[in-house]
Structure formats: structure tokens, C-alpha cells
Design brief:
single chain; 313 residues; alpha+beta; Alpha-Beta Plaits; 4-stranded antiparallel β-sheet; 3-stranded antiparallel β-sheet
Length: 313
């Protein structure tokens, strides 16, 4: 038996320039503010080593505006490859017509959700993952030291292409009544069989490692509907609907109180939970507006007057 969203294409394979001292304004500000442990220049761009709360270091590549523009010019070609290779019912991060909301919707109505995280995802996307999938002239520009690196505008799409085989293999191996979606490095599995809460993480971990990636076990989490709404990519889901989380609504109330117009506008838009226009167009063309799609169009915030006021611009 295979998990939902399971059919894949046949034959899908899993298988230094001059230095500059100029970089992005963001990276310069980070260095000036003392947020960066080590500040060096590699491959014509700044490399930031930013301390994390757990004592480890996050390495972020910060291309110059010129190189960033060059990398962005490659995005249309990468999108075409990703749309051809990826299962668009599974992959919701950094894909046209997909969003955190489309990632959360398939999980509505289930009893259990297991959330898992791919550790250092971009840095573990190697040339060997994509050498048969991305043309050499593009591959040479999107990899640094043999891997896709955090901070490059091309890395999310390269990572989606690299993980395509993992996605197809997971939905083939998992039981048919398991729903699986992935938003970048965030894997979500929903089902009704309680025994899978222990079995599924072990299976997924092995398959992830077999494909050359790693699971951050510290971030593996099991959610049960009986304990409250489950949270999928920052969106709360229950037996029939989706909601903005309490944390987001709390931040929105604070933004109103502080008259922070920038935060207020962004948080208000998030709380409205609007589906991407391209996604809606796809559903219309397919002629199968799903039940979860209709649920998304219902009001998704609590109906008290206080909450209604907090959502006004």
C-alpha cells in the first residue's frame, strides 16, 4: 500500500572566482551589529557564520547584488525542472501556487500528525543529488563547495529537486491512509492509526538517511488532535478547518496596540489565510475543488468581536 499522492515519473534519478569585498547590505549590517562570529569572503561573496542558540553556528552565504541578480535569472529554468520532477501534491515550499496554507490543508481532519525536520537541509544537498537533473551550466553556478548553500536564492529550488526522489519513495512506502507534505525541510505526516506515531518516525529516518540527508531528531514532534489544534507550518488545523494560531493573533493584537503598521499589515494578511491565486486557478482547471479547499474559504478566526477587531487594518 502506498501513501496518498503516490505516483511518480519513471526513471527519476537521485543521483573559485575572483574575490570581492562588497556584499549585501543585510550581511554588512549583521557584521556591524556583532551578530557574526567570523566574516570571510569566498567565491566572490561574503560568508556569515552566525551563532545559534544551541551553541552551533549557522553558515549563510551572502551574494553581492550583482551575483544575486545572476542567480535569480536562473530561477525560471529551475522552476521548470522542479515542476517536472516534484510531486506538486507533496511539495509546498518555494513552488509557484503553493504556500504554508496549501501545505497545511491536506492535514485537516486527522487524529495524529508527526512533524520532522531535515537537518542542515541545503548544506546536505550535494552535486550527486542533482547532477543528472540540472544542466551542468546551471549546476556550476548554484553550488558552493559541492553543495547548495543557505542564503543563495537558488538553493530552495535546488533542494526541492534534490529531495524529489525522497518524496516519491516516501509516499510509495507509507500506508495509503497517511498524508505527507513537505515545506522545504519541514516534513509533515498525518493519519488516524495511533501505532504509527512510533513506527513512522523510524521508517522516515531510515529513508531520509538512505537518500543522503539527515533528520534533526530533536525537532521530531507528535501532535494529537485530542490535545488541541495541530500546528502545520505555522497554521492550526482541526477536524474540519484551518485557523491562524493563537501566537500569531497575539502578535497582531500587540502590533495594533503599538500601532506598528508594517507588522500589522503582514500579520493581518497572514490571519486571513488566503489561498494563492495560482493554486485556485489550478483547482478550477482540474474541476475538483476539494473539501479542504472549501474549508479554507470559510472564516478562519474566532468569531468574537474582540478577534474581529484585531483583524482590521
Amino acid at each position: 500500500m502506498a501513501a496518498r499522492f503516490a505516483r511518480g515519473p519513471q526513471g527519476l534519478q537521485s543521483d573559485p572566482s575572483h574575490l570581492k569585498t562588497t556584499g549585501s547590505h543585510t550581511s554588512n549590517r549583521a557584521a556591524i551589529c556583532g551578530l557574526v562570529d567570523v566574516f570571510i569572503v569566498e567565491f566572490g561573496m561574503q560568508v556569515l557564520r552566525i551563532p545559534k542558540g544551541n551553541g552551533k553556528v549557522r553558515v549563510v552565504y551572502a551574494p553581492s547584488e550583482e551575483e544575486k541578480a545572476e542567480l535569480r535569472s536562473l530561477l525560471p529554468a529551475l522552476v521548470k525542472i522542479a515542476k517536472r520532477r516534484c510531486n506538486l501534491e507533496v511539495v509546498h515550499g518555494f513552488m509557484p501556487g503553493r504556500s504554508p496554507l496549501t501545505n497545511a490543508l491536506p492535514h485537516v481532519g486527522y487524529q495524529y500528525t508527526v512533524n520532522m525536520d531535515l537537518q542542515d537541509f541545503f548544506d546536505t544537498v550535494l552535486i550527486t543529488h542533482v547532477m543528472h537533473l540540472i544542466p551542468p551550466q546551471i549546476l556550476a553556478k548554484v553550488m558552493r563547495y559541492g553543495a547548495a548553500r543557505q542564503g543563495l536564492p537558488t538553493s530552495p529550488l535546488v533542494a526541492n529537486i534534490a529531495a524529489a526522489q525522497l518524496d516519491w519513495d516516501l509516499i510509495t512506502a507509507l500506508p495509503e491512509d497517511v498524508v505527507y507534505t513537505r515545506y522545504a525541510d519541514d516534513l509533515s505526516f498525518s493519519f488516524d492509526d495511533q501505532k504509527l506515531t512510533k513506527e513512522l518516525p523510524l521508517l522516515v529516518k531510515k529513508m531520509v538517511e538512505d537518500h543522503g540527508f539527515a533528520v534533526n531528531t530533536a525537532k521530531t514532534k507528535v501532535q494529537w488532535a485530542g490535545a488541541g489544534r495541530r500546528i502545520i507550518t505555522g497554521i492550526a488545523v482541526d477536524h474540519s478547518r484551518v485557523f491562524a494560531t493563537r501566537e500569531v493573533r497575539r502578535k497582531l493584537r500587540a502590533a495594533h496596540h503599538q500601532n506598528n503598521k508594517g507588522s500589522k499589515a503582514g500579520l493581518t494578511e497572514w490571519c486571513r489565510l488566503k489561498l494563492p491565486a495560482l493554486y485556485l486557478a489550478e483547482q478550477t482547471r482540474r474541476g475538483k475543488k476539494s473539501k479542504s479547499h472549501h474549508r479554507a474559504e470559510e472564516p478562519v478566526v474566532e468569531k468574537s468581536n474582540k478577534e474581529r477587531r484585531s483583524l482590521r487594518l
